[in-house]
Fold:
Amino acid sequence: MLQPKRTKWRRSHLVRPKKQASRGNTVAFGSYGLAATEGGYITNRQIEAARVVLSKFTKKTGKLYIRVFPYLGITKKPLQVRMGNGKGQVETWAAVIEKGTVMFEVAGLADADCKEALRQAGYKLSVKSRVVQKGEVLK
Structure:
């Protein structure tokens, strides 16, 4: 699973996704990409599940680019613990996704295969998404 090697602080504040992504909103490396149509969080497990789906489609001929990284620690208190006594421990890691962010890119495959692979990977994520082509910007 993806997680930072080290962080400056043990626990972080939650970051709210802004309205529209100003960076990372175009397909830069591949020919097709998977862009978020809404803001939200994607956990490291969801990124891994989408990576597994995409790697099965790309095999040895295609190239896969992951454009997001889970840097935000999501904390949770244990079950049946009384209120107070500080913030809980980091339970999982998540990536903050703004509307329009390109999360995954695929290159080196036929157009139909690229679209199908990204569509299948979109089912594994907790944010709504759609397939975009190089040069296209989601608005």
